[in-house]
Design goal:
The chain is an alpha/beta fold and 459 residues long. It has three domains: 104 residues, L-arginine/glycine Amidinotransferase, Chain A (5-stranded Propeller); 129 residues, no CATH class; 185 residues, Multidrug efflux transporter AcrB transmembrane fold. The chain has twelve helices and nine strands.
């Protein structure tokens, strides 16, 4: 019986000229190293290890002699890998090579955030770096007039300046870190605040992708507006806490338990699992309605309505990427919403709401049908008329609650509320105009077939 060997990554010591010292051993042996001796020892080690594992080699690179220590490439967990981050600057270029090797060999590379240095890191004194937002222009608020970004949606909030960022990062990366930190237990009370990050000083004015060395973070909380509460409350509850959150977001390294960003291979697996889960859920719903109403027609009608609702909601969500920069979108608080856990929760809520509304109408059709084998168009019309007041009242009260959540809940919950707004409107329509007519059409087709005369028979 054959056994599968483990694999060991090794790098030949072809480039062995070391011109730096990063530990005490190198300080004492830098001038006594021998390339020929290193090659002999490396080959001997490979011969020994090859009896116990398959040897996989990575190509050596000039000026990176320490790549021979491939055990430092990262941590491997099955087919998942976490690439190493080297503290000595001389070894930083190895990170790129090792990460690329993991990708080329079909490892799922987990993304761990590293610390970002900046002016005031670790300092609790925030007053010099936090400013109330009282004007539409960002520069007027942070006392840097040359920056003209519009921040009207943050009026009454706080602007935090973060300078001397090393290494430079994009505003999107900082916003992602802040959002992730806001979900941690220490900052759970601040979820739902509207956040925006604006780049100030680019690392390279000719290369926007090089990141920024200075940014401004704007945060708004409707309960702590600068215009509605006294300054001490605003400073203590909003400015100080948001500064502390920003410091933690940039300085705290991501632990394994906090990893939320995965490679495309992991994302594809999760997407496939989600599709399977939704498909099984719809199948379960179809079976339940089939048993509940005693007819497959009702099941198919309900499933078609659900698929319609989710598809329309997803389409409207995708449309926000095209209209987010328009004046109308700004007035309606529409941003470029992306699919995240909040949106997934919104889609599931849409399914539940629409299904409940559909079942109410279908149940009234079943009651009015009585002992008839199939419902007629008149029965369906009467059933819709009998339940329309309930449908409209329920949808209206739900829309009012969701609209308030959308307008006042802040940017963190706005994608979820947007999905609900779309889903409630479309779900109400589909229950009346899609699910119920499908039952009639299926019934009419069956009735027409049963009334057709037999071949050769008399009309």
């Amino acid at each position: 019986m054959s056994t599968i060997k483990d694999k060991i990554l090794m790098c030949p010591p072809d480039h062995f000229t070391v011109d730096y010292v990063i530990n005490p051993w190198m300080a004492g042996h830098k001038d006594s190293l021998s390339l020929e001796l290193a090659r002999q020892q490396w080959q001997q080690l490979r011969d020994v290890l090859s009896d116990y594992a398959d040897i996989v080699t990575i190509d050596p690179h000039p000026d990176l002699p320490d790549m021979v220590f491939t055990a430092n490439a990262g941590v491997v967990l099955g087919r998942k890998a976490i690439a190493s981050h080297f503290m000595p600057m001389e070894r930083r270029p190895e990170e790129v090579i090792f990460k690329q090797w993991f990708r080329d060999n079909d490892f799922d590379l987990l993304d761990l955030d590293e610390k970002i240095g900046f002016e005031g890191a670790g300092d609790d004194a925030h007053t010099a770096r936090t400013f109330p937002i009282t004007a539409d222009s960002l520069g007027e608020n942070i006392q840097r007039p040359r920056y003209t970004d519009r921040v009207s949606r943050f009026l009454g909030g706080v602007a935090i300046t973060i300078d001397a960022i090393d290494p430079p990062v994009s505003p999107q990366e900082i916003e992602k870190r802040i959002g992730r930190m806001r979900s941690q237990p220490d900052f759970a009370a601040f979820v739902g605040r509207d956040v925006g990050v604006f780049g100030l000083e680019p690392a390279d004015p000719l290369d926007p992708g090089a990141g920024y060395r200075s940014v401004a973070v704007c945060v708004y909380d409707s309960d702590l507006s600068y215009f509605d509460v006294d300054f001490d409350t605003w400073d203590r509850e909003l400015a100080a806490n948001e500064w502390r959150l920003a410091v933690q977001a940039l300085q705290r390294r991501t632990s394994l338990e906090e990893v939320r960003s995965f490679s495309s291979a992991v994302a594809a697996t999760l997407a496939a699992n989600a599709i399977v889960a939704v498909t099984l859920s719809l199948l379960g719903i179809m079976i339940y309605i089939w048993v509940r109403f005693g007819s497959l027609r009702y099941s198919l009608a309900a499933i078609v309505a659900l698929v319609h609702d989710v598809t329309i909601a997803l389409g409207l969500l995708a449309l926000t990427a095209w209209v987010a920069d328009t004046q109308l979108a700004s007035f309606l608080l529409i941003e470029e919403f992306r699919i995240d856990l909040g949106v997934v929760a919104g889609m599931l809520t849409i399914i539940g709401y629409s299904l409940n509304d559909t079942i109410v109408i279908l149940d009234r059709i079943r009651e009015n049908r009585g002992k008839l084998p199939i419902p007629t168009a008149d029965i369906v019309d009467r059933s819709i008329n009998q339940t329309i007041s309930r449908t409209v009242l329920t949808s209206t009260t739900t829309l009012l609650a969701v609209a308030i959540m959308y307008g006042a809940g802040g940017g963190g919950i706005r994608p979820f509320a947007f999905c609900l707004l779309a889903g409630v409107l479309v779900g109400t329509y589909s229950s009346v105009a899609i699910a119920a007519p499908l039952v009639v059409r299926a019934a009419a087709a069956k009735e027409a077939g049963s009334e057709s005369p037999a071949p050769g028979g008399r009309p």
